[in-house]
């Protein structure tokens, strides 16, 4: 199973802190899973210009191909000005409309206010559904108060992150098995 963690901003540390925790959890509980953490702050991504994702080279080509090759994607995103960052939206724009078909996608969201949980419901989930993702319905929402010195200090958040990893892996295994069973039923 190939899982890609996508930290969807080029600034800040909270989302990356949460994604690092997820990476450690996956390595600990699912050592056979191939996990890649992509932090957009580490890459020079071009703006989408409508080309097929396979035509992009360099960092842009690498990131889009990693996402397209994944079985599961865990998206980590901060909320800025009551919206997802433009860097994350650009990644969605670089990919084809059905990019997440047969992929499980889960989410970790960091925000300064509890009111920003609606951004996931009103912006992120509709984009992922449009791109045909199998969405893990429960996402982890982490507020400013849950961090201290680049560490997660809320035990409930830690529990929810661990559960998100379990749900992502279980849902991916389930959908993979269902697709294999469906494909095996065809005579050709």
Automatic annotation (TrEMBL):
Entry keyword set: Flavoprotein, FMN, Oxidoreductase
Keyword Disulfide bond tagged: no
A molecular-function term among this protein's GO annotations: oxidoreductase activity
Source species taxonomy: Bacteria, Bacillati, Bacillota, Bacilli, Bacillales
Protein name: FMN reductase
InterPro entries associated with the record: Flavoprotein-like_sf (IPR029039), FMN_Rdtase-like_dom (IPR005025), NAD(P)H-dep_FMN_reductase (IPR051814)
Pfam families linked to this entry: FMN_red
Taxonomic superkingdom: Bacteria
Domain NADPH-dependent FMN reductase-like: 1-143
């Amino acid at each position: 199973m190939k899982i890609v963690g996508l930290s969807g901003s080029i600034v800040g540390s909270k989302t990356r802190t949460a994604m690092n925790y997820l990476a450690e959890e996956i390595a600990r509980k699912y050592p056979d899973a191939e996990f890649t953490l992509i932090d957009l702050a580490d890459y020079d991504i071009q703006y989408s210009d409508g080309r097929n994702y396979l035509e992009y080279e360099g960092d842009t080509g690498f990131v889009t191909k990693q996402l397209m090759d994944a079985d599961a994607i865990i998206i980590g995103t901060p909320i800025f000005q009551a919206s997802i960052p433009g860097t994350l939206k650009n990644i969605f724009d670089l990919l084809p409309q059905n990019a997440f078909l047969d992929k499980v996608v889960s989410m970790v969201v960091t925000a300064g206010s509890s009111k920003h949980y609606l951004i996931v419901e009103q912006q992120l989930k509709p984009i992922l559904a449009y791109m045909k993702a199998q969405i893990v319905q429960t996402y982890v929402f982490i507020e400013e108060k849950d961090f201290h010195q680049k560490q997660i200090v809320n035990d409930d958040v830690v529990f929810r992150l661990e559960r998100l990893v379990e749900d992502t892996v279980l849902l991916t295994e389930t959908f993979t098995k269902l697709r294999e069973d469906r494909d095996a039923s065809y005579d050709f």
